[in-house]
């Protein structure tokens, strides 16, 4: 198994009325330092969504272990998509952040841009690994491009044979 998945056990708890960083209702929250994922209990009734969201949250732990070089590679890929006018995302968490970005955010690598990159990574990884595309709004060509890019850059880290 990849070194990115090693570490202390990640706890999973359930709690209602979760909010994201913008104060919007959320299905989950991750606390990296506490190694804790908190999910809305309503997800238990929707196994595919539960799996997709849990994987997304789990990939937040991978994101912090990727290191700056790997995170910057993903960021560069997303910047290329941005400049080519790419629309859509691999999940709502990244999509609403992408919609709020300005060209200045991208150029300056603002906090807003970096948070988008993290969410996009987690949404993309969860979609590829979990094979649940309920929130993917990327065009087919962009989907194929992301899969190809992800496999080329992260195969040894995320998809060990």
Description:
Helix content is 56%, strand content 10%. It has 161 residues and is mainly α. The protein has a three-stranded mixed beta sheet with strand order 1-5-4, with helices on one face. Strands 2-3 form a two-stranded antiparallel sheet. A hairpin with a 5-residue loop joins strand 2 and strand 3.
Task: Give the tags.
161 residues; mainly alpha; two-stranded antiparallel ribbon; 5 helices; 10% strand; globular
Low-confidence stretches: none
What would you call the structural class?
A: mainly alpha
Whole-number average pLDDT? 89
Order of helices and strands: EEEEEHHHHH
Largest sheet at a glance?
Answer: 3 strands, mixed
Q: How are the strands of the largest sheet arranged? A: 1-5-4
Quick one: overall form?
Answer: globular
Strand content: 5-15%
Which range best describes the helical content: under 10%, 10-25%, 25-40%, 40-55%, 55-70% or over 70%? Answer: 55-70%
Separation, N- and C-terminal Cα atoms: 9 Å
- Counting DSSP E segments of at least 2 residues, the number of strands comes to 5
- Rounded Rg: 15 Å
Q: Number of DSSP helices?
A: 5
């Amino acid at each position: 198994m990849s070194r990115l998945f090693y570490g202390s056990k990640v706890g999973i708890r359930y709690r209602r009325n979760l909010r994201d960083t913008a104060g919007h209702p959320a299905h989950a929250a991750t606390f990296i330092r506490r190694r804790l994922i908190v999910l809305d209990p309503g997800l238990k009734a929707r196994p595919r969504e539960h799996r997709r969201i849990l994987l997304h949250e789990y990939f937040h732990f991978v994101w912090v272990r990727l290191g700056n070089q790997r995170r910057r590679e993903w960021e560069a890929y997303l910047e290329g998509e941005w400049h080519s006018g790419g629309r859509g995302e691999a999940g709502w968490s990244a999509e609403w952040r992408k919609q709020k970005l300005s060209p200045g955010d991208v150029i300056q690598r603002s906090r807003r841009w970096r948070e988008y990159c993290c969410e996009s990574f987690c949404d993309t990884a969860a979609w590829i690994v979990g094979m649940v595309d309920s929130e993917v709004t990327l065009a087919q060509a962009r989907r194929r491009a992301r899969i190809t890019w992800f496999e080329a850059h992260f195969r040894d880290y995320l998809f060990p044979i």
